[in-house]
Amino acid sequence: MNPQWNATKIGIRRGWREWLISLRNPGDVTYTILGIVVGIVVVYLYRDDTPLPGVATPMAVYVLASILAVQVVFTSAYALATVLSTEREDGTLLRMKSLPCGLRAYTTGLIVRSLLEFAATAAITILLAAVILWPGFALSAVDVLILLGVLSLGIVALTAFGFVIGSLFRSPRAVGGWGLVVAGALVWVSGLIQPLSTMAPWVQILGQASPLYWMGLGIRSSLLPDEFVVIEIGDEWRLGLVFLVLIGWAVAGLILAPALLSRMARRETVASVEQGRQRALQRV
C-alpha cells in the first residue's frame, strides 16, 4: 500500500477520534456551546428587521451568513492554531516527525477534526436559526448544495491560515492573544461585519484577496433572495468566481499546510520541547 495513502487513512481516523474525545472535554464543549448561543442570540435580535423595502426576508438571515463564516474562521484557523501551538509545545509534533509519513497523518487529522467540529456547530446553528425564523427562512435543494460546497471548500482553504498563525506563535497563550487579533482583522476586512461594498476602495481590494470574503459571498448567495444582491460589489453574486477562488485557496491550503508543518517540525528538538514545557509550567 502507498505509504502516503496509508498515512492519510490513519490521519482520518485520528481526526475522528480526536473529535470524539473533544466532545467529552468540558472546556471544548463549553467553547462550542458559547459560540452557538452568542450567534443564535444575535439572530433572534434581528429576526424582525427588514433592511430592504418590499423584501420579507429578515436581516437575521444576512447575519446568519456572517455567523457561519465566522464559525469557519474560529474552527479552521483560530482553534486549529491553538491546537497546533499546544501540541508543538508538549512534544506531539516532534513525535509525529519521527514517524514514517507522520506529518501527513498529523495534518490530515487536524483538517478532519476541524471539518467535524464545524459541521456539528453549523448544523446546530442553522437548525436553531430555522426554528426562530420560520417561515421566513427556507432553502431549496440547490441552495443546500451551494452552501455545503462553499463551506467545505472554505474550511479547507482557511486551514492554511491556521497553520500560519500556529507557526508564527510558539505558545497557546500567544495564539490566544495575537491570534485573536489576526482572526478579528480577517473577519472585518472580509466584509462580515458590514458589507464590503460600503467600505473604502482599498479595503475592498484587500478584502477580495481573502478567501473569507468569497466564502461569505457564497454563503449569502445560498441563504438570501436575489434582491439582496444590491448590497454586494458589482450587484452580483459572482457564484462561478466564488467556487474558482475557493478551489484555488483550498488547493493552496492543502499544499501549504504540510509544507508549513514540515518547516515547524524541522525546528523542533528535544531541547526546544523541554524549554516549551518549562514555559508552560511557569504559566500554571
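(the above was protein one; protein two follows)
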Amino acid sequence: KQVLLEANIGTPNDMETVLKNDAEGIGLFRTEFVYMDRDDYPTEDEQFEQYKEVVSAMNGKRVTIRTLDIGGDKDIPYFNMEKEANPFLGCRAIRLCFKRTDMFKTQLKAILRAAVYGNVSIMYPMISDLKEVLRANEILDEAKKELEKDNIPYSKDVKVGIMVEIPSAAIMADKLAEYVDFFSIGTNDLTQYTLAADRGNNSVKEYYNYFNPAVIRLIKNCIDASHKYGKYTAMCGEMASNPDAAKILLGLGLDAFSMSASSILEVKDIIRNTTYEECKKLAQKALEY
C-alpha cells in the first residue's frame, strides 16, 4: 500500500526543514501566523504572497491549507473576541469564520489565487456536521465569483476537505464523505473531545490516550467512509508521528501521515520495515483493546 508522508508547517520559514527531510507534501499548513503580531486583519494580497511562497516551493506536491483555526485562547487584540470560560468548546475556527464572513472570504480568495502556483487543497477546521461544510462551500463559491468578476486568476481545481477533530464528524463520516474530497484527522482534539480529557491538564493526562479503542474506532470509521466514496484520509495530529502508532494506522488503511518534518525519516523507516499483513493484525488488536 502506498502512503504519503507529509509535513505540518506553521509559517513559510519552516520550508527549509520540509525540503531537507524530503516531505512528499504539506499535510497541514496552519495559517494563524498571518493574523498574529499585528494590529489589523491581513489583506488578501498579504495572505496571497505568504501562501504562494509555500505552494511554489513545493513544486507541484500537495499543499493542504487549513483555514483560520483560532479561538478565545489566543490573544489577538484586534479580533475583539469575548473571553470564554471554555474556549475549546467555544466560538473558534470555522464557527468564528461564520461570524466574520468577510474575513473568511478574504482568506479563501487568497488561497484560491495561490493555488494557481501549485497543487492546493483547502481544509476547514472544527467541522461538527454537514450543514457547516455546505455553508463554508457557499462562501467559497462566492469567493470564486468575486475573483471571476474582477478578472483575477485563481485555480478551479482546488480540493476541499475537513479536519475531523470533533467526535460528531467522525461518527457521521459516512455522510460527510459524499461532500468532501478528503478527511484529515486531528487526533489531538479528537482524543480530548472523545475522552473528555484536556490534553494540557496534567491531572487528567492518564485519561488522554489516542490508543484508546474508542478513538481508534472513530479513526477507522473515517478511513472506511472515505474509501467507500473513493476519497482519502490523512492524519495531522501528534499520533501521526508516533512510531508505535504508525503500524496500527497503516493497518487501518490511513492514506497519508502528516507530521513535523523532523519526524518523517523515522516514520518512513518503520513503514519500510513492516508488512501490510502485520499492520492489519496490530490494527485489529487495537480496535479490540
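Reviewer note on protein two: The chain has a mean pLDDT of 97.
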